[in-house]
Structures are given as C-alpha cells and as structure tokens.
Design brief:
Its cofactor is FAD. This protein is an alpha/beta fold and 285 residues long. The chain folds into two domains: 142 residues, FAD/NAD(P)-binding domain (3-Layer(bba) Sandwich), CATH 3.50.50; 107 residues, FAD/NAD(P)-binding domain (3-Layer(bba) Sandwich), CATH 3.50.50. The strands form three sheets. A four-stranded parallel β-sheet has the order 3-2-1-7, with helices on one face.
Length: 285
C-alpha cells in the first residue's frame, strides 16, 4: 500500500515535530520552508525577515526545559533550566539530526496556495502550489499540516494613539527590537506588560535615562524560579496543585496563589494588581 503524502508547511518547532510524527505513523512528509534553515521563531537574525517571526538577542524562554522538551528526546542535562534562544535552536538542531529530519525539508521554497482538489469529497486530497527560485510547482497531497506559527505579523494599532503622527520620537513594535544600545540616554515608554514588554523594559533600563512600563489592566507577576529553586512551571503544573485546587475550590486556590505572589512584592502597592484572579488568566492560556 502506497504511503500517504503529507505537506508540512514550515520547519520550526511544530514543523519538525510534525515531520517526526508523520514518520512514526508510516506517512511520507514533505516539508516546505521559505527560508534557508530550520528553527522558525527561534533562529535569531539581526534584521527581521519579511514573513518570518523575529526575536530580540537576549530572549530566554519562559518555559523550563523539563516542561518543554520532546518526550522522545530529552534536553541535555548540562543545558540550563531556562534556555537562551541560541540553546533552544541548538536543541532543535540536535533533535532534527537525531531523527534525520532535514532530508524531508525543501528549503527556500514558499507555499503559494493550498486548495482542495475537485474530487476532494472522495479523495480528501489537496493541491499545493510552491515556488522555489522563481519556478512554481504543483503537488498533490493527502493531508496538509500548517506549522507557520502565529508571531509573524506585528500588531501596531496606531489608531489607538491619537496624535501619534505628531510625535517626534521613534516608535516601533517589539518585533523590530534587537538590543538596547539605541536607547542610551533616552526616555522610553514600553506599552504592554506581556513577556516581551517586561523583558524589554528591564533590558532598556540599563542604558536609557528613564523607562516607563504602561499596562492597561495590571498583571500577576510570576518569576521563573519557584520554591527551593525549582522551575515555577513544574511546581504549578504538578498533580498536587491540581488536586489542591479541586479540594479547596477555585476561589481559595486563587487566594492562596495571590498571597504567595504578593509575598514577593505587593502588587497593589506597585499599581499592578489586576481585576482578574491569578489562576483565571493561567487557565485561559
């Protein structure tokens, strides 16, 4: 019986694991990667590429290696609990080499279109048009796995900032940020208190004259390292914590967690206490 051919779009973390899963299931994967290398989001470059996610030079992952590693390929013991982006990419390269995944990837090949074949109702097949070095090619696949990520396009809602057209300073999205050197001696405002906003505010503060961090609703701040030096996500996602939440109920579990976070610093005193409960936002992620 002929193996079913599967198109995998993108050779980042999801693309690599999709290739591996296809091989495990006896399928024939063909991965299309528009750039010349694997890694997707985690491959740092000084100049952002159009159509590809971009990170800043100092990015350290906020998920511990114990929680993020692939079940069939543990992260080496000598890697830190929370890895720099270069180490995350190194791990992906090790994974790809261990399972010989690169030979299934067609680099510098962009996917132009994906559409159902005329007989899709009976065949379930797709027509995938790709372009490599100016030449287009159409192939038929039995399935398509879209692994293009969701951090490619910057969201810069300038309409929400009346008068921005008269602003004489510089403004841009964190996608275009690479290092703090250009902010030396300047007054800077970072809008948003997500992971990137927090990272950039801290890093820029080392060179800037003054840094403001703007948040519209506050946030519960968690540090990577938890009790006794264990990664926080390992403690938070244990069977014990889930059992505790079920026994005492969501409200008491929220109260306990918020009290623990306020022991580190009082969120209300710093104007950071949000209206939502601590575990409410965690459950939505």
């Amino acid at each position: 019986m002929t193996s079913k051919r599967i198109a995998v779009i993108g050779a980042g973390v999801s693309g690599l694991t999709s290739i591996k899963c296809c091989l495990d299931e006896g399928l024939e994967p063909v991965c299309f990667e528009r750039s010349d290398d694997i890694g997707g989001l985690w491959r740092f470059q000084e100049n952002p590429e159009e159509g590809r996610a971009s990170i800043y030079k100092s990015v350290i992952i906020n998920t511990s290696k114990e929680m993020m590693c692939f079940s069939d390929y543990p992260i080496p013991d000598h890697f830190p609990n929370f890895m720099h982006n270069s180490q995350v990419l190194e791990y992906f390269r090790m994974y790809a080499k261990a399972f010989d995944l690169v030979k299934y990837i067609r680099f510098k090949t962009a996917v132009c279109s994906v559409k159902k074949r005329p007989d899709f109702s009976t065949s379930g097949q797709w027509e995938v048009v790709t372009e490599c070095e100016g030449e287009k090619e159409m192939n038929v696949f039995d399935g398509v796995m879209v692994c293009t990520g969701h951090h490619t396009n910057a969201h810069l809602p300038l309409g929400s900032f009346p008068g921005i057209e008269k602003f004489k300073g510089q403004y841009f999205h964190s996608r275009d940020y690479k290092n703090p050197d250009s902010f030396t001696g300047k007054r800077v405002i970072v809008i948003g208190i997500g992971n990137s906003g927090g990272d950039l505010a801290v890093e820029i503060s080392h060179t800037a004259k003054q840094v403001f961090l703007s948040t519209r609703r506050g946030a519960w701040i968690l540090n990577r390292v938890g009790d006794q030096g264990y990664p926080f996500d390992m403690l938070f996602n244990s069977r014990l914590t889930h059992l505790f939440s079920k026994i005492v109920g969501q409200s008491l579990a929220n109260t306990y967690m918020e009290r623990r976070m306020n022991q580190r610093f009082d969120h209300k005193m710093y104007g950071l206490k949000p209206k939502h409960r601590a575990k409410d936002i965690a459950l939505k992620k």
